[in-house]
Amino acid sequence: MKFPESNVLQHLPKQFFASLVAKANAKAASGADVINLGQGNPDQPTPDFIVKAMQEATANPATHKYSQFRGMPNLKQAAADFYQREYGVTLDPETEIAILGGSKIGLVELPFALLNPGDTMLLPDPGYPDYMSGVALAQVNLELMTLKAANQYLPKYADLDPQVVEQAKLMYLNYPNNPTGAVATPDFYAETVKFAQDHHIGVVQDFAYGALGFDGKRPVSFLQTPGAKNVGIEMYTLSKSFNMAGWRIGFAAGNADMIEAINLIQDHLFVSVFPAIQDAAVAALNSDQSSVKSLVALYQRRRDQFYAAARKIGWEPYPSGGSFYAWMPVPAGYTAESFADLLLDKAAVVVAPGTGFGAAGEGYVRVGLLIDEPRFTEACERIAKLNLF
């Protein structure tokens, strides 16, 4: 017997990162010394104190039972305390925090928790590819907000089609931005709150890189904006801040109605997250954040090292204000994909073509700052030999 996939599954977007990894692996299998600048997977270990907290919790038989459906109260309290301490934002841990098995789950499930088939949502272009998964699963209509370097990769609401704006019910933002490294400003968030209130649009700010700001400037939380909790939520993950990508733990914070929708759908899909991982997350959030400061300093050094090496060969980056990415222009005569393929084929250097993040990513490639600094220089020296700049 054969069991065909459902129509919904057949319309899921192609997994961009899976294709990128396959190309890189094939090049490495040929014996090439591949320098992988295309990944977005943190390369540093989880801090020891978090690992030890997990080990102790795992040894406790109380963590071996089913977790509480909506997350452990001590983690929700730690998340609320974290936002109060770090951003001056007051949150009710029971009604304004939802525990997630990684923020991707919240981002993908939210459209079918809040929207009906045929409803309209707004997504950034370029943007994180997995936002599209929620669109397909929820069978909602998608309208893109084109992000341009001339506008610091912030959406320009005045340029959106008024009819689309009136139909839209949900909007995603992501700052610091993947893939561009752009950051949002308090003025932009104030404009966003007014735009959302005027048009009754829910806002979801993906704060995955919230801890990672450069040049001494800390990224702004959307929830710091007056009125933000009236219109939306922020997704926070421990993956980047604490090098816990494989642990799959995060939370949503903000608007109580949206938090309840997340909790309700997760009541039916999951039994929360392994309690020991939640205990480890408590240790991370309640810490003095010195490990985060060290990590930010590392990414700053890497960014500066890569920028210096790239500029030496005439390759000028878009100035990144946060995240762990560099957004690099493609030389004349190439598309993002053909340039990425050339670098892999001729220089054994992997970069992510900008079009993997949307049509507006054409003309750029994304570089991950997730390897040791000397390899950035080596990668640029290899690229220089191709005489592209």
State the shape.
globular
Helical amount among residues, as a percent range?
Answer: 40-55%
Distance between the termini: 56 Å
Content-based structural category:
alpha/beta
The overall average pLDDT, rounded, is 96
Main sheet record: 7 strands, mixed
How many distinct helices? Answer: 15
Proportion of residues in β-strands: 5-15%
- Give a count of the beta strands, DSSP E runs of length 2 or more: 12
Poorly predicted residue ranges: none
What letter string, H or E per element, gives the SSE order?
Answer: HHEHHEHEHEHEHEHEHEHHHEHEEEH
> Widest sheet: strand order?
2-8-7-6-5-3-4
Verbal overview:
β6, α9 (228-231) and β7 form a beta-alpha-beta unit. A 7-stranded mixed beta sheet has the order 2-8-7-6-5-3-4, sandwiched between helices. The chain has 15 helices and 12 strands. The protein has helices at residues 7-10, 16-29, 48-58, 73-87, 103-114, 131-138, 162-167, 186-199, 228-231, 238-241, 256-269, 275-285, 290-312, 336-347, 373-384, and strands at 35-36, 97-100, 120-125, 141-146, 168-174, 202-206, 232-237, 250-254, 325-329, 349-350, 352-353, 364-368.
